[in-house]
């Protein structure tokens, strides 16, 4: 079984991020890919919302709290990811960055795809996220989803993507599944 986590990129109360993540999961499930499971990893639900208070100094061998340990286990159980990121100030949200930085080897040698959105399709946040993921040894596939707040959201709040995106999103899902499956052997070889 190849497990793909769909990671939300916002914890704001007014976020539209979860709606995009749920649409991606529904789209992926309709592909009926054999041996693949998609799960939403909502960073708002981890309870880890303030880096200074919730996250311990890095490089600890054990995580000091149950909620921190649960986030580690959840990410570690995944073979790959689809990150759904809004664009905040030409970057990803600080909450997503904290959730990425908090872990280390749990991300290593896995694949990821990026779905961004914003007034300019979230392109700057996607570039920033690619750089961060590369540093965490995550291979990012080329097909990317990019949605416009003006065209793909009703009243800039309800996600209703144009059908023109379907082909690209399908390619993105196929690629992240293929890479995630292939990288299992790299992780196996790295620990043996």
Structure overview:
With 192 residues, this protein is α/β, with parallel strands linked by helices. It has one domain: 3-Layer(aba) Sandwich (Rossmann fold). Helix content is 40%, strand content 21%. The chain is built from six helices and eight strands. Strands 1, 2, 3, 4, 5 and 6 form a six-stranded parallel β-sheet that branches. A two-stranded antiparallel sheet has the order 7-8. The chain starts with a strand and ends with a helix. The relative contact order is 0.17.
SSE map:
Elements: E1 2-8, H1 17-30, E2 36-41, H2 51-54, H3 66-76, E3 80-86, H4 94-102, E4 110-118, H5 123-135, E5 138-140, E6 145-148, E7 153-154, E8 158-159, H6 166-191
Parallel strand pairs: 1-2, 1-3, 3-4, 4-5, 4-6
Antiparallel strand pairs: 7-8
The gist of it:
With about 190 residues, the protein is an alpha/beta fold. The protein is built from six helices and eight strands. It has a single domain, classed as Flavodoxin domain (Rossmann fold, 3-Layer(aba) Sandwich).
Order of helices and strands: EHEHHEHEHEEEEH
* End-to-end CA span: 21 Å
Shape: globular
Can you say what the CATH homologous superfamily is?
Answer: Flavodoxin domain
- Strand-residue fraction? 15-25%
Give me the CATH fold name: Rossmann fold
Unreliable stretches covering 5 or more consecutive residues:
none
Major sheet: 6 strands, parallel
Strands, count = 8
Number of domains: 1
Percent helix among the residues? 40-55%
Number of helices: 6
Rounded to an integer, what's the Rg over CA atoms?
Answer: 16 Å
- Give me the CATH architecture, please: 3-Layer(aba) Sandwich
Q: Briefly note the structural class of the backbone.
A: alpha/beta
CATH class: Alpha Beta
Query: What number is the mean pLDDT?
Result: 90
